Amino acid sequence: METLWFAIVALMLAIYVVLDGFDFGTGIVYLFVARTDAERRTVLQAIEPVWDGNEVWLIAGGGLLFMAFPRVYAAGFSGFYLALMLVLWLLILRGISLPLRSHLANPLWRTFWDWVFAGASLLLAIVLGAALGNLIRGVPLNAEGYFFAALWTDFLPGPAPGILDWYTVLMGLEGAALLTVHGANYLAMKTEGPVRDRARCVAALGQWTVAALTLASLLALPLVQPGLRSNYDAHPIGYGLLLLALGSLAGLFYWRRKQRDGASFLASSLLILGLLGSTAWGLYPNLLISTVHPTHSLTVSNAAASHEGLQWALGWFLAGFSLVLAYSVYVYRCFRGKIVLSEDERPGA
Q: Does residue 300 sit in helix, strand or coil?
């Protein structure tokens, strides 16, 4: 049962990264692909109908983590307190930037909030990548299952690392590059004209950065956490997830060259799922790896709620997951197709 819940929590968080990831990516490329106010309204209309629904997956994933593995939730939220406060403020700034930009027609006012939206999106993408880097590298968990991580120490992995070191920064840059390409592919699929053309250009250039950083992170992995390979050696079927990621990366180049925007977006989505899935396969059964001593690590065995509680929760999860999934499918079906400004929103109207 604990293994099943490990897979469920990993799946929920992966879905969140795929869905809200293109929101972040859209924000990152926002100032590059949209140069007039009409073009920027087009970009914003591409994500506004699905924005809130995408973030439901984060709330659901966090709630499931608290329910299934309460010790991990407690340790993570106390240890990463400073980082989580930064994330909270970035989410707030990103969330208020879009409604506030429309309160005044002043160009300076709108430009300011456009930069806030783009900057918060970029920083959040970096934070997501750095967070994954922390999970892979490990944190200084003590014997009681708690830790505190400074924002940075000496920028080197070790028994008492900071949130930021050379490896987590590398993962942060990879996360930002990947979500940039993901968001550009989404905009290319949803828009027409100059916005689509610029989004295609960003995606075509960005995929080379994604490939380089993915290769660098894979080469760095044995230096930071060599134990992740043990699950692959014991259960080689896990290599299928890594092959999914590599195949999706190849597909990203192929479909972008063919100018197939929908297929390119699917490829970037599968790339994210493949990378996160292969990471989860390597981490199991660890949820938080201790850099102090391996016996201090929080695993699916010592951090899970009671077996009976997990069994009862499974039924509620299936019901809730079905509702969230049905809602998401309904919203995406309602707002499928290209974004077209109405007559009164077009320039000169």
A: coil
Per-residue model confidence as pLDDT tens digits over 187-216: 999 999 999 999 999 999 999 999 999 999
Q: Within 10 A of 342 (CB to CB), how many other CB atoms are there?
A: 8
Show Cβ contacts of residue 229 under 8 Å, excluding neighbours closer than 6 positions: 222, 282
Question: What is the phi/psi pair of residue 288, to 5°?
Answer: -135, 115
Residue tagged 């293994």 (tokens): 3
* Phi, psi of 342, rounded to the nearest 5 degrees: -70, 170
Note the pLDDT tens digit of each residue in 250-303.
999 999 999 999 999 999 999 999 999 999 999 999 999 999 999 999 999 999
Helices 193-224, 107-137: crossing angle, 10 deg rounding: 30
299 - beta bridge partners?
Answer: 286
Structure tokens at 243: 């092959």
CA distance 312 to 299: 21
d(CA 269, CA 56): 18
Look at residues 48, 71, 122 and name the one whose alpha carbon lies nearest to residue 297: 71
What is the amino acid identity at position 348? G
DSSP state, residue 9: H
How far is it, in rounded angstroms, from Cα 36 to Cα 13? 35
Which DSSP state fits 135?
H
State CA 158 to chain mean position distance: 25
Neighbours of 93 (CB within 10 A): 18
What is the per-residue pLDDT across 4-49, written as a single tens digit (0 to 9) for each? 999 999 999 999 999 999 999 999 999 999 999 999 999 999 998 8
Q: Which helix (H) or strand (E) is 287 found in, with range?
A: strand 286-288
Helix extents (H) in 34-165:
37-68, 70-79, 81-101, 107-137
Q: Name the pTM for this structure.
A: 0.94
Distance CA 349, CA 340 (A): 14
∠ Cα 32 53 242 (to 5°): 70
